[in-house]
Specification:
GO terms for molecular function: acyltransferase activity, transferring groups other than amino-acyl groups. Pfam families: Acetyltransf_1. It comes from Thalassospira profundimaris. Residues 5-151 form the N-acetyltransferase domain. The chain contains 4 helices and 5 strands. By secondary structure, it is α+β, with helices and mostly antiparallel strands. It has a 5-stranded mixed beta sheet with strand order 1-2-3-4-5, sandwiched between helices.
């Protein structure tokens, strides 16, 4: 019997499991999870006027994944698009349609809000994620650069 996957906005009651999943996500990308980062990101997500939103995937009564996203204005078109910043599924729930369900709901949100595209980035060596992303989207021809500030 196949368990259904519910996709819904994150709620205050999800704080503990979200923090655990987000910490695992951060560690995967070589970042050290900290209470300060977790608290800041959580505030951004929960604030209705904040810069980002979060969907969670619930399977068998447990939160097993999340997608954190935001709206971005594009100056070249004068239109808005959606930016998926973070997508993570607990290892025990992978290859069960969780990421697909999160992305499908995000597609619906993009349509509802009139965003003309969704964009996201992943590490070049993240073969697992890239297999999914290559199936549902297409790699852009843009090259991303970073210039760290501070220190």
């Amino acid at each position: 019997m196949k368990t259904t996957i519910e996709i819904r906005p994150v709620a205050q009651a999800d704080r503990k499991i979200w923090a655990a999943l987000f910490s695992d996500y951060m560690a995967f990308y070589g970042c050290t999870p900290s209470d300060a980062v977790l608290e800041t990101t959580w505030r951004w997500i929960l604030d209705p006027a904040g810069p980002m939103e979060c969907l969670v995937a619930v399977k068998g009564g447990q939160v097993v994944g999340f997608a954190q996203y935001r709206a971005v204005p594009e100056t070249l078109t004068g239109a808005w698009f959606g930016q998926l910043d973070d997508l993570f599924v607990a290892p025990t729930a992978r290859r069960q349609g969780v990421a697909d369900a999160l992305l499908a709901r995000l597609d619906n949100i993009a349509h509802e809000r009139g965003w003309f595209k969704l964009v996201w980035i992943t590490a070049q060596d993240n073969a697992t994620a890239r297999k999914l992303y290559d199936r549902i989207g297409k790699a852009s021809n843009w090259v991303v650069y970073e210039r760290p500030q501070g220190d």
